[in-house]
């Protein structure tokens, strides 16, 4: 079963990458669709972050969740420094610190 | 003679692609390592984990694939969720297609396969700031190729080291952190902020649904909200 999922996922992902480079190269994407697609990655990534950090086993977990302050601190760092390495380091170090001392 | 000159420029473009892509490896390499380790943890065989990195070749979607697979979701639902997460690649394909019109089908297939977030970002910047030249597709071969090799090697390293990385390190947390570095620069633009707030809220409100359906629902809601906010903003500016 896992192989079916791997192959279908791979084929669909490739088709989306190939869509306009390959067969539709002469066509333009309609402006409303283009505009919608520009928000896809932001929306998807936000959903993944929220699910990963706030939700533990389908239950929203806010109390005693050290990932929340770690994420907020890292978010501030991301705004200030715009640097992937600094952001990830601050987030991880905060999480370790909170897990160790609280 | 003209041919020799063009060969040289293809190589130059290729190395430029490598050089432009290199700084982004800071985020990509730990991500690949984590994916490899998570795959082992989820009970996949090394061959299955490597096959995912080679066949799907899309970081975020591979991690979600693992999480969904662990919940016992059926293959069609897993592929459907992976597709929603990778939907943004159609936009990359549409944006970059005009530069590849003259290429053979073989090149188009190869370059489509290599079209990921990070490679698209640096290669598109190159295309938008440089005058067109018929060999500029080598730039994507360089940027995408470097990303591909790094991703495969780090996946392999991650699945080999998997057991040696203690879960208490919480390295999986590096994944939402990486994504945050991608969305944070957008939050100063109102429609993006609306997309973020909507997607986040909907993801929480629908979190009780099985098979991570909240991801798809929140993604679509966030996308529509961003679009509507943009329409509203444009109209407000016009009137």
SS strand fraction of chain A = under 5%
Strand order of the largest sheet of chain A: 1-2
Task: Count helical runs of chain A.
Answer: 5
Shape assignment of chain B = globular
Cα shape of chain A? elongated
For the secondary structure, the number of strands of chain A is 2
Along the chain, the helix and strand elements of chain B come as HHHHHHHHHHHH
The percent range for helix content of chain A is over 70%
SSE class of chain A? mainly alpha
Tally of helical runs of chain B: 12
Report Rg of chain A. Answer: 19 Å
Please summarize the sheet with the most strands of chain A: 2 strands, antiparallel
When the domains of chain B are counted, the total is 2
Q: Termini separation of chain B (Å)?
A: 59 Å
State the helicity of chain B in percent bands.
Answer: over 70%
Give me the secondary-structure category of chain B: mainly alpha
What's the total count of β strands of chain B? 0
Question: How would you characterize this protein structure?
Answer:
The complex is a heterodimer of chains A (102) and B (239). Chain A contains 5 helices and 2 strands, in the order αααββαα. Chain A has 102 residues and is mainly alpha-helical. In chain A, helix 4 (67-81) runs antiparallel to helix 5. The longest helix of chain A is centred in the C-terminal third of the chain and has 18 residues, at 84-101. Chain B has 2 domains: 2-181, no CATH class; 187-239. With 239 residues, chain B is an all-alpha fold. The chains are: A mainly alpha (102), B mainly alpha (239). The interface between A and B is large, with 69 and 96 residues.
